[in-house]
Amino acid sequence: MNKLQLHGFNNLTKSLSFNIYDICYAPAEQQQAYIEYIDEAYNADKLTQILKDVAEIIGATILNIAHQDYDPQGASVTMLISEGNVELPSSMHSQSPGPLPDTILAHLDKSHITVHTYPESHPDNGISTFRADIDVSTCGRISPLKALNYLIHSFESDVVIMDYKVRGFTRDISGKKHYIDHNITSIQNYIAKDTQESYQMIDVNVYQENIFHTKMMLKETELENYLFEKESNLSDEQKTGIQKKLQKEVTEIFYGHNYRRKKIDVAD
Predict the structure, then answer these.
(1) Which residues does the Swiss-Prot or TrEMBL record annotate as the active site (predicted)?
(2) Any idea which residues carry the catalytic annotation?
(3) pTM over 0.90, yes/no
(4) Which residues of the chain have pLDDT under 70?
(5) CA torsion 178→184→187→190, rounded to 10°?
């Protein structure tokens, strides 16, 4: 897409909502230890560093950071950012994955990044789910999609749900309104190939409204990767039952529906 010659500032707002779910099996006697582990692994300080890395990737200047750990669990971080004095590279609007945080790429203006975490557990079947919600909202020339590749690599995720929306308009020097300033056909184009190969992915896009939605569900579900205590002495029957519970949890989150036992049989 050729560069637009704008009348004044680029007023487009671009928002990326990024939700990850990490599933674990931790029976009642292990659930408190699991919550404590998650709270330590993804406390406010750790989340703040992730958001600082995002700001570095997109070349933003951090204006203010507010962070808070919660009792009994969870944490939140909000970061206000402004544009940096960095030239916009020619690849910024290409539909390709962004890098990990080792280069400054672009600039933001009047923008913010937030993250909130939600650890929780099923009351009786041993399934625990950690959810992190991250929102990157930018006002200006670039899209926050270039931070997506790094964000996916920052969390161990069984399910990832992403929404991208461009709002408002900006005018060119002739007065014509432009409702989007870059090409995009799918959020998947901004995700690295090795990640795409590891996940089942579906899109629900509304092109005329500049709304893009992608879901990802991990293909391989080795039981050992889901046990909070790796050395658990489980019978084959117990392992089969746990595997079914995990599959049910991941599938329900991915599709956004609760399934009855007759559809997915889960051993007690």
Answers:
(1) 111, 116, 139
(2) 111, 116, 139
(3) no
(4) 1-9, 59, 83-110, 141-143, 231, 261-268
(5) -120
